[in-house]
């Protein structure tokens, strides 16, 4: 089954139709998606700033990571759940949307990066070097910015 | 007093028309407005969670505010500038939009909440700065801030929908709430 057929199948599921045929469901899910964005964005930014040596420097990177990680994970679950619902309701439109593919491909890198590279660095017993920390922080900020910006752009196309 | 004549005048200015009709400027301004949520609201969420006593409990509150405030203020300025530009691009419809009006009300309440917090319990912050669980009034301010900013985001997102716009027939309540005027035809 090719991707277009898959997208068309997604759009035709009961759940997708429930959302796309409701006058307000998409708007409500989209709003919750934005609430999740605020939280995950804040948590990512605060920890990345700390890796850059700015902000909450009274905490070690590890202590701050322990604090923000659960909120970041919670926000990511909200983002993924609402994101999948939003996708389902307009899967065929997404298939033809360049920003959607940019977002999806960046996510395929940024999420594994968060839970492997960044996780290892921030939870390491021995603090990472200044340069390593800064590179990880800048990569993280850059990737999540692309995810957010391309995500917003899906709504402008078509 | 109605601000409608002012909005109508604003909508007729060259800058407003240019921004409204621009292919990329308007979406760009809106994207910056949305993404700055991460910086401004995201960081205030962390501060509110500290006020509630559920995050960053080992850090004194004043240390968090001192170090994060520059980022929040920067984010707030970007929010206000882009927000004003978005209004400037579509003044009349925004002014007569119930969600825009709700958002303004929630923004005023959020401002009052922050102002009251700073004028009352925060003046004695040295007495509870290190408390893992701040006093009730501080926790209330944190909770109120979280709820109000969630309402502001939701109302803000809903401005995009035309369900209650004045150019389609509305109930008397919406007509009143949105400040719709009788159409000339």
Q: What features would you describe in this structure?
A:
- The complex is a heterodimer of chains A (158) and B (185).
- Chain A is mainly α and 158 residues long.
- Chain A has one domain.
- Chain A is 82% helix and 0% strand.
- Chain A is built from seven helices and no strands.
- Chain A has helices spanning 3-12, 14-21, 25-51, 61-89, 91-95, 98-123, 130-154.
- Chain B has 185 residues and is mainly alpha-helical.
- Chain A binds chain B through residues 23-24, 27, 30-31, 34-35, 37-46, 49, 55-59, 63, 67-68, 71, 145, 148-149, 152-153, 156, and chain B through 27, 30-31, 34-35, 37-39, 41-46, 49, 55-56, 58-59, 63-64, 67-68, 71, 149-150, 153-154, 157-158, 160-161, 163.
Unreliable residue runs of chain B: none
The strand count of chain B comes to 0
Oligomer state of the chains in this structure: heterodimer
What is the end-to-end distance of chain A? 25 Å
Would you identify the regions of chain A where 5 or more consecutive residues have pLDDT less than 50? none
Radius of gyration of chain B: 20 Å
Average pLDDT score of chain A: 95
Largest beta-sheet details of chain B:
none
Count up the helices of chain A: 7
What is the count of structural domains of chain B?
A: 1
The succession of helices and strands of chain A, N to C, reads HHHHHHH
What is the largest interface, and how many residues per chain? A-B, 33 and 33 residues
Order of helices and strands of chain B: HHHHHHHH
Euclidean distance between termini CA atoms of chain B? 24 Å
Q: What best-fitting shape of chain A do the alpha-carbon axes yield? A: elongated
Discrete helix count of chain B: 8
* Number of domains as seen in the coordinates of chain A: 1
- What percentage of the residues of chain A does DSSP assign to strands (E)? under 5%
Question: What's the average pLDDT of chain B?
Answer: 95
């Amino acid at each position: 089954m090719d991707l277009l057929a898959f997208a068309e199948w997604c759009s035709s599921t009961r759940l997708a139709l429930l959302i796309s045929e409701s006058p307000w469901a998409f708007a409500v899910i989209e709003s919750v998606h934005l609430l999740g964005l605020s939280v995950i964005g804040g948590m990512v930014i605060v920890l990345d700033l700390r890796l850059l040596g700015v902000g909450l420097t009274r905490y070690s990177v590890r202590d701050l990571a322990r604090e923000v990680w659960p909120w970041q994970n919670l926000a990511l679950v909200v983002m993924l759940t609402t994101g999948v619902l939003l996708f389902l309701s307009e899967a065929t439109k997404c298939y033809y949307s360049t920003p959607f593919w940019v977002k999806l491909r960046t996510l395929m890198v940024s999420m594994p990066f968060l839970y492997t590279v960044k996780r290892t660095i921030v939870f390491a017993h021995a603090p990472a070097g200044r340069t390593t920390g800064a590179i990880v922080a800048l990569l993280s900020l850059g990737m999540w910015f692309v995810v957010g910006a391309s995500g917003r752009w899906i709504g402008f196309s078509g | 007093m109605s601000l409608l004549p002012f909005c109508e005048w604003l909508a007729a200015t060259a800058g407003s028309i240019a921004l409204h009709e621009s292919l990329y400027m308007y979406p760009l301004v809106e994207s910056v407005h949305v993404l700055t949520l991460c910086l401004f609201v995201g960081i205030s969420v962390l501060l509110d969670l500290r006020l509630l006593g559920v995050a960053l409990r080992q850090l004194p509150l004043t240390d968090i505010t001192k170090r994060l405030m520059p980022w929040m203020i920067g984010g707030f300025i970007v929010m206000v500038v882009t927000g004003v530009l978005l209004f400037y691009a579509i003044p009349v419809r925004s002014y007569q939009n119930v969600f825009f009006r709700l958002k303004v009300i929630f923004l005023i309440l959020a401002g009052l909440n922050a102002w009251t917090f700073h004028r009352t319990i925060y003046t004695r912050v040295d007495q509870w700065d290190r408390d893992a669980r701040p006093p009730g009034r501080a926790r209330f301010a944190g909770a109120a801030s979280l709820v109000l900013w969630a309402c502001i985001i939701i109302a803000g997102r809903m401005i995009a929908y035309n369900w209650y716009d004045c150019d389609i027939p509305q109930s008397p309540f919406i007509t009143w709430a949105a400040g719709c005027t009788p159409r000339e035809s």
